[in-house]
DNA sequence: TTTAATTATATCGCTTACGATATAATTTCT
DNA sequence: AGAAATTATATCGTAAGCGATATAATTAAA
């Protein structure tokens, strides 16, 4: 059954690379005391502080049952605060704490460090950039 | 900080697409009573039955602490059997059961069904095939 | 041939990830 | 206004995924 060979699947490389990337980030994030999904939440909030749970979930394409406990752990780490919106009490506003804001400075170099490491393995920035655009296009189509 | 925008990350689209693919497979696999990682294990065993835990882990780029409980659950589902190798008692041989073998027939159409669905969203097989090759190349480089 | 190192797998603890379901606040409908 | 529907978030249960560590079998070294 040729169509069932692992080698012929498009799904597997995405699954594998996703995990390999998380592994590659891990040592860099460990020194900050955060995980990869927590880093993604920070990326969203650094770009625009003060977003609702749903806004963050939408951007990361995650469900609230994933993001709620994640945000609670980040609250424990004192990276974010969560409080009900005054206008609409169903909404929970998530804000960066001072600590969460400051972490941006330390994190700023991480993406570049990883790109440099990949360049050493003959994976160039232009290739990654092209790939990124292609993938973002597909995500928009299938989301 | 331009380099920290979610939009500019290459890591995020991989993370997102990987989960979107798992979600896309889910309804197809649900009727078989298996999960996406379990499906990947079956792909590996359908290709070559009777492999050790490590051989399967290597092919899926997973650690034994992920694959061992996964295989145990598949044993519960009576999809595979696990028994110590006679030559080397440290090794555990994983074999498909009759049920695990038979499932290949029902699963054979799934990849094609998903490709057809993607074609409807303007994602063509040639593009995916090219992407697959590119990604497999990268995996080999960074693994 | 004991001892030490290596190999193969498993266990533990914690963090995602998500389907199903619950709860409370807000809107919409009648 | 009061009931019904919708929206926003949370809770529960289960399955990954992985670092750290443990255990047993095999191999290498002294």
Automatic annotation (TrEMBL), chains A, B:
Q: Please state where this protein is localized.
A: Cytoplasm
* Subcellular location, principal: cytoplasm
Recorded hits in PROSITE patterns, A to Z, give: HTH_MARR_2
Recite the UniProt keywords alphabetically.
Answer: DNA-binding, Transcription, Transcription regulation
Q: Which residue numbers delimit the HTH marR-type domain?
A: 7-137
Family the entry assigns: Belongs to the SarZ family.
In Swiss-Prot or TrEMBL terms, this protein is called HTH-type transcriptional regulator SarZ
Source organism per entry reads: Belliella aquatica
Q: What gene name is given for the protein in this entry?
A: ohrR
């Amino acid at each position: 059954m040729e169509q069932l060979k692992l080698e012929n699947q498009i799904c597997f490389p995405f699954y594998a690379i996703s995990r390999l990337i998380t592994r590659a980030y891990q040592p860099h994030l460990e020194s900050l005391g955060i995980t990869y999904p927590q880093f993604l939440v920070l990326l969203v909030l650094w770009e625009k502080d003060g977003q609702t749970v749903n806004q963050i979930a939408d951007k990361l394409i995650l469900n609230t049952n994933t993001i709620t406990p994640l945000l609670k752990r980040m609250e424990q780490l004192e990276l974010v605060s969560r409080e009900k919106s005054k206008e609409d009490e169903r909404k929970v506003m998530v804000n960066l704490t001072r600590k969460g804001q400051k972490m941006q400075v330390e994190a700023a170099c991480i993406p570049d460090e990883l790109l440099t490491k990949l360049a050493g393995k003959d994976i160039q920035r232009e290739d990654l950039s092209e790939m990124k655009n292609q993938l973002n296009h597909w995500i928009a189509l299938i989301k």
